[in-house]
Amino acid sequence: MPVVEMLGIVSMIILGIILLLIIPKLINEFLGSFAYTSAEIVARDIASLVSLSKASLHITSMNYEIPTEVAKFNLEFDNRYLTVLRIDKAYCKNSELKEFCKSFYPILFDLNVKIEGKNFKIIKREDEVLINVIE
Amino acid sequence: MRYSLMSSNKALVMTTNIAIAMLILIMIFVVFYFVVLKFIFRFHIIPREAQARTHGIIIANVLLSYKDLIYQDTSGNFYRGTFDSSKLDKVSQKNKIEDIGFPNSYATVIITYAESNEVTATQLQSFKSNADKVNKISLSPETCSEQCQNKDYSSGSCKPHCSFEETSIGRDGCPINEVCCCSGGEPKTCEAKCESLGYSSGVCKPVCSETEKNIGSGTCPPSRVMKTCCCSLPVWSFYFYPRNIKEENIEKFLNCYNQYVGPFYTKSIPEFYKCVMSFVTEAGVYMDEFPISIYKDGEIYLGKMTIIFSQVYK
């Protein structure tokens, strides 16, 4: 077999192996970025933290940083539900991406707050819970 | 020379074919990837079944610090994880907690002392005024003396403290700061004997269950089948009033609760679980036990808190 043919086949095999190794990592990163910027994940994290704040006898505040710099959300607490809406993407008006762009999650007690921003501080004063924007 | 050129062309064709095959393979990967993503978008990133477990654990953690339930000392310090039996009595009599609770969910809490073989009757001697008695007596007020006679004692009177020979049966029927002390006679029925030992109730059965204490057959009437007296430990239970739930489903839930749990007794937790499962099918029911302690009359007892939780979706 000529050298050119051999080189071609070997280089293709090496390229194929490299691609097979890279693709899962790329998929993982791609899925991770979706998860981090998903309204469902943010809603779950914040709602769980707010609900759990009732369990603290001594902790007075908790900070929450959304795990991505690229996404921006609006938060609304009403009727024991937290509604999270992603506001930095025009395609989020599309109803098919419901869980990714707009999500709601139950919380344990009544809290009527509306917030627009990224990072929040949950403050507990006696039995009252407040949520303030850090930045 | 001619042979060499032909061989080179053949190699080029072969290499091109391999390259095309690789490209097709990559395209299949990409298409498969987007199909997977589409499913993720459609069927949620977080499985909804996980919500019930998370919320059940959150409720347990909040209850362990809930000021309306936990013990507070004279300096005002609250003790996480230590429930005050007098606060439990109040919540259990009301049956429900309304100021907290997840919407679109059913949550039931059952608190009791640890298994009967872990808490001895001697430890329970101080636990004479149990919630069951408080409940019964509050429904049909009787004098202290009448209550004692109904329990097979010869007499009873209200005093600030009962003596060693007397048995306290609670504060009902007595002025504030006094308890009803029964004396004389020996309890003749299984129920009275159990109550005198500090248990909430007693029933004669062929075999006692795991949560009951066998105190022998002496107080059980003779029958064809050999029966023994089984004493039950005090139980407190309540539920979080369901919000955003259809009235008919609230009724079904309350029927299950009244049938199998009730305010001061628990007939069967597994049956209650099955009953709730019969109309909550969306994500199942989460049930778990948490170790706790119970404060009663200056003593701390080992206890357990059972939470049965189900989240439904709007």
Could you characterize what this model shows?
The complex is a heterodimer of chains A (135) and B (314). In chain A, the strands form two sheets. A four-stranded antiparallel beta sheet of chain A has the order 4-3-2-5. Chain A is built from three helices and seven strands. Chain A is elongated, with a radius of gyration of 22 Å. Chain A has helices at residues 3-36, 39-53, 98-101, and strands at residues 61-64, 73-78, 81-86, 102-106, 113-117, 120-125, 128-133. Chain A has 135 residues and is α+β, with helices and mostly antiparallel strands. With 314 residues, chain B is of the alpha+beta class. In chain B, β12 and β13 form a beta hairpin. In chain B, α7 runs antiparallel to α8. Chain B is elongated and about 115 Å long. In chain B, 36% of the residues are buried. Residues 116-140 of chain B have low confidence and may be disordered. Chain A binds chain B through residues 2, 4-5, 8-9, 12, 15-16, 19, 23, 27, 30-31, 34-35, 38, 40-41, 44, 48, 51-52, 54-57, 79-81, 96-97, 99-100, 106-109, 127, and chain B through 4, 7-8, 10-11, 14-15, 18-19, 22, 25-26, 29, 33, 37, 40-41, 44-46, 54-55, 58-59, 61-62, 64-67, 78, 80, 99-105, 243-244, 311.
Count helical runs of chain B: 8
Largest sheet features of chain A: 4 strands, antiparallel
Percent of residues in helices of chain B: 25-40%
Order of helices and strands of chain B: HHEEHEEHHEEEHEEEEHHEE
Mean pLDDT of chain B: 77
Largest interface: A-B, 38 and 42 residues
Could you tell me the strand content of chain A as a percent range? 25-35%
| Element pattern of chain A in H and E | HHEEEHEEEE
Query: Which regions of chain A are unreliable across 5 or more consecutive residues at pLDDT < 50?
Result: none
Q: Give the terminus-to-terminus CA distance of chain A.
A: 67 Å
Q: Walk across the major sheet of chain A and give the strand order.
A: 4-3-2-5
**General shape of chain B:** elongated
E-strand count of chain A: 7
Largest beta sheet of chain B: what is the strand line-up? 1-2-12-13-4-11-3
* Tally of helical segments of chain A: 3
> How many E-type strands of chain B?
13
Oligomer: heterodimer
